[in-house]
Amino acid sequence: MKLSPEDQRLVHNLKPSKFSKEGFLGTDSRSVQEIIDDDLRTLKKTGVSQELLVQALKDAYLRAKNAFGAEIEIKKDVKAVFHESMGRIPSPFCKDGLFEKGEAVVTDSASNLSLVITSLGINLIEKHDFFQGRGCRFRIDPLDAIKIFNLQPAK
Question: Is the dihedral of CA 69, 92, 37, 32 positive or negative?
């Protein structure tokens, strides 16, 4: 299948670069669209809305950021800490702009799961349905996020 020039640019932008040392695909061999489709299918199966998941990510990110480097409790067994980082990173999706580089590390001691949440990562999910590829340090696996934040399907 031949990619449009815009899709070719996106694939190029998702690879490791001077802006994103690791890139956004990790070790995932699936196409960007396959990654998106699989993650959206996973969300649909759980019954948890993407909006609810994004809101939980935003809340944890902001709470950790506002704690100025102190570890905080998000809920029982779930803690978060924000790591400040200088600079900004452009979105791999053209025209999205620049995002601060800080990250919130959220850890669930009960399930031994963790997530690294960035402002760019939230934007990629919210605007592009892109949770990033498997093996990427910044991938937010929808099932892991649902378990960590104990998100429940809409009734």
Answer: negative
Per-residue model confidence as pLDDT tens digits over 93-138: 988 999 999 999 999 999 999 999 999 999 999 999 999 999 999 9
Q: Are 114 and 138 in contact (CB under 8 A)?
A: no
Please check the confidence at residue 66 and state whether its pLDDT lies above 80: yes
What pLDDT is recorded for position 124?
98
For residue 7, what pLDDT band results from cuts at 50, 70 and 90? confident
Helix axes 50-65, 119-128, angle to 10 degrees: 170
Mean pLDDT, residues 60-80: 96
How far does the chain reach from its first CA to its final CA, in angstroms? Answer: 40
pTM of this structure: 0.94
